[in-house]
Please model this.
Amino acid sequence: MDLNTTWFILIAILFIGYFFLEGFDFGVGILLPFVSKDDTDRRVVINTIGPFWDGNEVWLITAGGAMFAAFPHWYATLFSGFYLPLLLILVALILRAVGFEFRSKLQAAGWRRMSDHFIFFGSLIPAILWGVAFANIVRGVPIGEDMYYAGGFFNLLNPYALLGGAVSLLIFTLHGAVFLSLRTGGDVQARAHAVAKRIWMPGIVITLGFATSGYFVTDVHEQVGIIPGTLPLLAACGYIAIAVFLRMKLDGWAFAATSFTIVCGAAVLFQGLFPRVMVSSLNPDWHLTIYNASSSPLTLKVMLFVALFFVPIVLGYQAWSYYVFRKRLTRDAIPEH
Model:
């Protein structure tokens, strides 16, 4: 395995970790107005991800930094061609952070409602747009010989990409509902469990539609293969397991199943891309690959040593924080004031 392949795998792991961790954050934020009956319920819901959401976003920052260092042409083409959707994601994440951090600074009901809107839309918009973005990366976008994106914003709003946005929205919402079932008690837990069971069926229908259309508009099936033991089959088994564990009310196992499904599903996208990093819809010779988009071998080698030192520290810290804040939350834990 050469350095280029190693860095592609590392960046894939960072994005997969981001989707797994930030996925339930997005889901919890989306479900905030639907599983809460009053302000105390909303506080319980927010507190389930309060210690984690900002740490989970570190995975995105690290993935972007690794992309910039290891594959600068990939970074430049992606962030210039996808400028508007990525800007919308950034603005949504900023407003979401404002909602989390300043919601309780004022006791005014109007301020709290606005903060709740920030959290909801700041979770909804990225949950959709990440699916749109990666569906376009796999499908292919107009990239010229000079590695510049030659399309416009509306090129990104094709039916396949929009279907990908619907898939990511439903999967992340399901992930968040199961997380709430695991982390809360009482009425909030019951509502979250009911929402998870309702979302499961639309999720599998939309996902099957996305996978079927991908067979015709992408070459992922040629890269990955649909045979027993491959990632698509594992992702499908994980999704079926979610329904089984929800019916048995095994919240921990259901969360493990949603996590497994997201990890395998995201891995399918990166496996379908390799050794490309962006697909050109204009000419196969103009694809961005791990070789023509990479930095120098020296840069890749130095950055690899940096990653091997810091990534275990981040993993250790996050594992410790999840262990410390592992108990279920109920209304009794929220002070009356």
